Every structure is written in structure tokens, then in C-alpha cells.
Amino acid sequence: MAKQEFQTEVSQLLQLIIHSLYSHPEIFLRELISNSSDALDKLRHLTLTDETFKSLPFDPRISLELDEENKTLTLSDTGIGMNEEDLIANLGTIARSGTKNFLAQLTADAKKDSNLIGQFGVGFYSAFMVADRVEVVSRKAGEEQAFRWISDGKSGFDIEPASRDVAGTTILLHFNEEGAQYANSWRLQEIVKKYSNHIAFPIFLTYDKSEWNEEEKKSDKIRTTEQVNAASALWRRSKNELKDEDYKELYKSITGDYADPLFWFHTRAEGSLDYTTLFYIPSKAPLDLYQSDYKVGVKLYVKRVFILDDAKELLPQYLRFVRGIIDSEDLPLNVSRELLQQNRVLTSIRNASVKKILSELKNIATNKPEEYLKFITEFNRPLKEGVHGDYANRETLLDLVRVKSTKVDGLTSFADVKSRMKEDQKSLYYITGGAEALLRTSPLLEIYKKKGIEVIILDDDIDEIVFSGVDKYGDLDLKAVSKASTSDDLKDETEPDQAEALKPLLDKLKATLGDRVKDVRASVRLADSPSCIVSDEEEPSLQMQQMLRAMGQTEMPASKPTLEINPDHEIVKKLLARIDDVTTEDAAWLLLDQALLMEGVPLLDPASFVQRLNRILNLSI
Ligand code: ADP
């Protein structure tokens, strides 16, 4: 038997792994099964592509044999196997430059180092976390001679000729104290199901099963072999192999949802990055959709091995209703949570996934509008969050959200509103800040109605925040009707000499209302109402201010509204004719208060409002 030293780097790595690296030693099984799965993948590939291997039998399986008494576990596969050279190169040295780099960066600070190691697969060596002696017997496909590699993970390894019936690799673990807990069939089944359920090959466990012997009234130990995993990495099969039923079944098994999903999007990307994604849209919004501790619905796999299912960085928050799987070929198996946040591979997958999900939704919106409506009923609001937060995809998201409008019953899209624009119309308009009924009757809409311009009605409580940050739809300006500046589409209404004539009244109103208003001016947007209030372009609207205050932002300086009055209105004309009349002051306040009421803003002083109203009523009766 030839005794060989580990390459220095291997000894270093082993030290690191054995001492303090992993908080979950159970992952040794995931790593070894994943190696076997890779070895099976490689052999399958050879039998498919290489003439000399075509005749080889390919009977893929991974077997676990548990000896509870002696505390050993044997893991074997019928994969590609290793010859003597391979064993020395793969299990005695570290060939990958990435791992060498990693070792060079080590600081001997255990905490920093364990963060670092998240970037590198340590694979096979993790066996030494749970075993004080590891034996590998392997026979390379296409070769006759097998070899045994033995090591205690400390001093080096021994290698000697051995025999094995068929090609493949067998790994015998002699559990150490830490590993003894895994000499337990329940535990092994649990770990396999947790991490390796969707490994594409069957994993069998052979163990002593207790069965009740009724005659002798005792339980017998019966040597049993059972398949432990589902062996169904469905998402790795091609789309045309899969039926709708398959997709639905997988959806239910990963989500626990009883209902069928609305849609699913299955993508295989090959090229600079290799990955598969399978995303589902549930038919109903998850119950925790609007809770900050919502459960993440997308699981991360690496090479069909389950990695984690609670990483909020897999998709942007607004897509938290999406369920499914991301399976990457490029990430290391033990990618750490910290690392996910700035991992380039994952960032690329995430960006591509968002684009994919949104473009598929857009397809459905175009081609199956009725199906899309079901989706919108549940998920319009998260999409709006996306409009707010996902600047890169804002255009697409604006096309996906649905809104109400003055021209249609039910919901419509920005694109449809655009298509209904009047020939000479320059911008798109919306109104926010209150319930639908209040918005529909707002005096701010009068001129638009008169001119036949459609106005988008945004009555969701997040609309104000979302759309105050959106000033374009495509190349069109998107404008709030409550903002003070006169829009291009209304300009022709202003008649300078009329404004001039109104000036004495405007001055009187300003003097009366004092610092309750920022300004008083003639309006171009009113038809039937005598007055309305508007806010400055850059200021939050009154409703937004109310909302911010309700959310605890008490520091915010109260900005004042601008009062606009309608020069063509009977009341305004009469007031102009008797500016110095005693009733004009009451009328000034009533013009302001009614405008505030119409915007759903509560009055500061309802008692004075009622007194004034009654004085005026008294005069008119
Ligand atoms: P990694 O799997 O990340 O490459 P490992 O340390 O787990 O790192 O394994 C090193 C190498 O040993 C693998 O790349 C593979 O070539 C070989 N190997 C490990 N396990 C097996 C196996 N069961 N069958 C064949 N080759 C294996």
C-alpha cells in the first residue's frame, strides 16, 4: 500500500472544514450524493456521445447502506468512477484554481474564513466532518482495475488496487462522535428528502427495518431497501416531455396549495450561465402577501440539489407571490446566505427571471385577456409596487398594471388609454387621492369631461405614492390633474383679459383667506364648480400629506393649497360685482371649504363652516 501526503492546500482545507466551518454537518450527505449525481450525469453523457462507451450498461442509481451497529454508512453509485490517477488528483490535491485562490485569501479568522468558504464547494472533504476514516473504492468506466483510497483526513491517504464488479464509486464512512447521529435510518431519510429529493436519479436506502412480529409479540429487524427520494427533477426535463398535469402536481407538492396555478413559465438557459427556472403564478394571492415576514415562494437549487427556500434576494419583493424553482449549474453547492446578496451569477439569473416573468405576463395580457384579468384581480397591487421600485422594468410594469378611467367601466390599461387619446392631446392625465366615487365627481375633472379627455382614476391607497414618482408613459407625459401648473391640453382656455378683470376679486379672496392658501387664481379646469384646490408640482398632494401624517410623519411642514376659482361661474360673477359686500368674506371661506370637501380633505374648523353656511342660507331664503 502506497502512503501519500495530501497537498498542503488539502490539509489546510480539511483543517478548516473539520474545525468550525459548518454549522450543519448533515450537509455531508448532500455533497456526496451530489458528487454521485454528477458522476452519473457524466457517464450518461459519455454513453450518449462517445462510441467506445455506447455499449456500456447505464443503470443509474445511488445506494446508501446503513450499518447501525458498526456506525458506518456506505454510499455507492454506478457513475463514471475514478482510476488511480483520478483518485490522487481529485481527492488528494486541489486542482481548481478558485479553491487555491480562496485558500490564499484565508485570514485565520474563523468567522471571516467561514464567510469566504461559502463561495467554494468543498464537496467530498465534508465527509471528514462526520467520519474519522473514509474509504473510497472506485472503478472507472471502461477500465477493469478498481482502486481503494483510504484516509483519516489528517496525515494523508493510502491507495491500493481493489476490485469492484461494475464501474462506479463506493464511499465507506466510519462515523466519528459527531457523525454517530447519522447512523440512523430516519435521520438519513429525512436528510435525503430535505436536500436531494429532486436529484434526477433514484436514491435507495438499505437498513434494518423494525417490523412487528404478531406471533412472537416482538419486533424483528428486517433488512430492507427502499427508494428515498422522489427522483423527479421535473423542471430539468424538456417542456415537450411534460404534461400540464405534471406541472400542476409539482406546483402542489412544492407549495402545498390545493388549487391549480394560474400560469407557469418554464425556462432553460444555456450559454454564459446555465440554469433552469420554473415559475408559477398562484390562482389566489398568498395570505401573507402584505405582511413584512411573508414566506418566500421560490426555492434555490444548485445542480438539482436543494439549497434554500427562504432567500428574499431570489426575486424582487414585488414578485413575492411567485412560486417555483431556480436551479443553477454555476453556483457552488454551499453558497452562503450572505453571499447570495452580491453573487454575480445570482444577480444575472434574477434579472433575467424578472424579465422573463414580466414578458410572459405581457403575452398573456395580449393573447388571453380574460385569463389575465384573473391574474390582475389578485396581483395588480404588487405590480404597482414594482412600478414604484423597479425602475429598470418600469415600462413593462406600466403596461401590466390595470387602472380605472373616466371613459370605461371596469379596468383598462395605459396602452388603451393612450390609444383613445384625442388627436391633438399631448399628455395622459390621472386623478388620485380618495375613493373611486369621490374621484369621479371631483371638480378637477370637469374641464377634461368637457373636452372629452380621458382621465385615469387611481383609487388604490398606494397609487398616490406610486404614481407621484412616474412622470412618463413611454414618451408621453403623465400628469396629475390636481397639480397646479396648467397642462398643455388646457392652455387655450386661459383668456388673459378675463383674468385681468377678475383681479380685484382674487385680491379680496387672498386678503380674506390669508395664510390658509398659497395663492388664489383664475382656473382653466372648472366647468360646473365655482372653485377647486390644486397643489404645486413638486409638493406632495393634500391627500398624500394626510397619509404621511397618518403614518407618523408629524414633522412635515403643512403645505398650503392653491385655490382656483371658475371665472365663468354664476357665483364668481356675482361676487365680482360686489366685492365689498359683507357676505363676500363668508363666500370666500365657503369657496375654499367646499373645494377641500370635494377632495376628501376634512375641514379644520367645521363649526365656522356651518355658521357661514347658515348666514348665507338665511340671506337666500
Ligand atoms: P467538486 O464536486 O466540487 O468538484 P469534490 O471535492 O466533491 O469537489 O470532488 C472532487 C472531484 O472528485 C470531483 O470533481 C469528481 O471529479 C471526483 N469525484 C468525487 N466524487 C465522485 C464520485 N462519486 N464519482 C466519480 N468522481 C467523483
The amount of beta strand, in percent, is 15-25%
Distance between the termini: 118 Å
CATH architecture of the largest domain: 2-Layer Sandwich
Strands in their spatial order, largest beta sheet? 1-6-5-4-7-3-2-8-9
The fourth-level CATH homologous superfamily of the largest domain is Histidine kinase-like ATPase, C-terminal domain
Number of helices: 21
Q: Describe the global form.
A: elongated
Can you list the ligands bound to this structure?
A: adenosine-5'-diphosphate
Main beta sheet: strand number and arrangement? 9 strands, mixed
Average pLDDT:
87
User: What structural category arises from helix and sheet content?
Assistant: alpha+beta
Q: Supply Rg.
A: 36 Å
What is the tally of beta strands? Answer: 23
Give a brief rundown of this model.
The protein is α+β, with helices and mostly antiparallel strands and 621 residues long.
Descriptive notes:
- This protein is an alpha+beta fold.
- It folds into three domains: 3-212 and 220-230, Heat Shock Protein 90 (2-Layer Sandwich), CATH 3.30.565; 235-367, 2-Layer Sandwich (Ribosomal Protein S5, domain 2); 496-620, Four Helix Bundle (Hemerythrin (Met), subunit A), CATH 1.20.120.790.
- It contains 21 helices and 23 strands.
- A nine-stranded mixed sheet has the order 1-6-5-4-7-3-2-8-9.
- β15 and β16 (408-412) form a beta hairpin.
- It is elongated, with a radius of gyration of 36 Å.
- It starts with a strand and ends with a helix.
- The relative contact order is 0.07.
- The mean pLDDT is 87.
- Bound molecules: adenosine-5'-diphosphate.
- Adenosine-5'-diphosphate binds at residues 35-36, 39, 77, 79-82, 90, 121, 123-125, 169.
- Adenosine-5'-diphosphate is lined by residues 35-36, 39, 77, 79-82, 90, 121, 123-125, 169.
